[in-house]
């Protein structure tokens, strides 16, 4: 079995953050989303292929087996389904294909999911319940025997109905963006994508069920979320991109006449421009590790650290790792800030 990680999107749901950085290299739970997926695949002795776009190609140079779409904008991209079809044809893949959308963070391994595969198309499923940070009507939801309750009678089952963004949702069970496509359906996929760009893989799963194909589902345990649901991502979805270069991506959001919230994604081995200003500021470190310099002294920081800064204190942040460092700051708009 081959594995394809879909990392070719332009992250529109990230708002301005997605203009300067791909979702794949954002950090969650101590590592990049992409590295989490690669480690889980390698644990099952499956070597991944990574599909990305031309705009973000430079972020993937250290990885093996990267296939690049010639897309620099959202309008030019193939779409997730068409990207799968493109990879199958370009690489002449002739075995069953595990497909993982790079948006996904999940805490469990892939072992149970892979063990439940019987040769029919298979979809990873998660129970979102009544969690306020997840909206099933914005996701692909499913029906199966026992889907009206939790836990279901079995963790592996056949899906009876599957719909993208159904209102009301079919159930509290959603597709996670993890699929196994048997090679016998590659021709159906090619026909489905012919002469048009197809995006969400869920539409193809829906198409298979409507054709009368059996499609299995497997319920993931542990934690799962789409990175777009993280609170810091949602908080800045309507922010303004203020800086984007080889050091960092910075977005600002006015909360009131005087108060500004700012997020910085500091790239590996880079540092911010040191500065001081006449008002107080607070730094909240969200993901990653590094150091903050305050009046000439450096202090280690990592996720969940909070650093208050007094007026006129010089400060600079250093990313001392090979992963992104993400921090949020709050400050008064009328103070000078470098």
Mean pLDDT: 91
- The secondary-structure element order is EHEEHEEHEEHEEEEHHEEHEEEEEEEEE
Roughly how many Å apart are the termini? 52 Å
Number of domains: 2
What structural class should be given to the helix and strand makeup?
A: alpha+beta
CATH topology of the largest domain: Spore Coat Polysaccharide Biosynthesis Protein SpsA, Chain A
Shape type:
elongated
- Please identify, by name, the CATH architecture of the largest domain: Alpha-Beta Complex
CATH superfamily of the largest domain: Spore Coat Polysaccharide Biosynthesis Protein SpsA, Chain A
Return residue spans where pLDDT drops below 50 for at least 5 consecutive residues: none
**Major beta sheet summary:** 9 strands, mixed
Q: Rg from C-alpha positions?
A: 22 Å
Strand content: 25-35%
């Amino acid at each position: 079995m081959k594995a394809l990680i879909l990392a070719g999107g332009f992250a529109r749901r990230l708002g301005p953050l997605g203009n300067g950085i791909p979702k794949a290299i954002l950090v969650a739970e101590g590592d990049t989303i992409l590295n989490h997926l690669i480690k889980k695949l390698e644990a099952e002795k499956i070597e991944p292929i990574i599909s990305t776009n031309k705009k973000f190609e430079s972020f993937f140079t250290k990885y093996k087996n990267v296939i690049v779409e010639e897309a620099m904008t959202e309008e030019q991209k193939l779409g997730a389904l068409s990207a799968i079809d493109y990879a199958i044809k370009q690489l002449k893949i002739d075995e069953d294909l595990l497909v993982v959308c790079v948006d996904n963070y999940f805490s469990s391994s892939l072992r149970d999911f892979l063990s439940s595969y019987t040769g029919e198309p298979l979809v990873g499923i998660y129970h979102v319940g009544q969690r306020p940070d997840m909206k099933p009507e914005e996701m692909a939801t499913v029906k199966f025997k026992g889907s009206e309750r939790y836990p279901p009678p079995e963790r592996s089952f056949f899906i009876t109905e599957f719909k993208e963004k159904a209102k009301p949702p079919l159930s509290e069970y959603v597709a996670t963006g993890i699929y196994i496509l048997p090679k016998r359906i590659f021709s159906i996929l090619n026909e489905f994508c012919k002469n048009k760009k197809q995006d969400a893989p869920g539409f193809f799963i829906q198409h298979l069920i409507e054709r009368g194909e059996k499609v299995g589902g497997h319920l993931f345990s542990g934690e799962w979320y789409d990175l777009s649901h993280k609170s810091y991502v949602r908080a800045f979805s309507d922010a303004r991109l203020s800086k984007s270069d080889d050091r960092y991506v910075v977005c600002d959001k006015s909360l009131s006449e005087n108060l500004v919230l700012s997020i910085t994604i500091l790239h590996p081995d880079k540092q911010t421009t040191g500065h001081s200003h006449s008002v107080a500021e607070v730094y909240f470190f969200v993901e990653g590790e590094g150091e903050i310099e305050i009046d000439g002294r450096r202090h280690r920081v990592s996720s969940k650290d909070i650093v208050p800064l007094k007026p006129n204190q010089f400060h600079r942040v250093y990313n001392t790792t090979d992963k992104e460092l993400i921090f949020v700051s709050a400050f008064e708009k009328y103070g000078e800030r470098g």
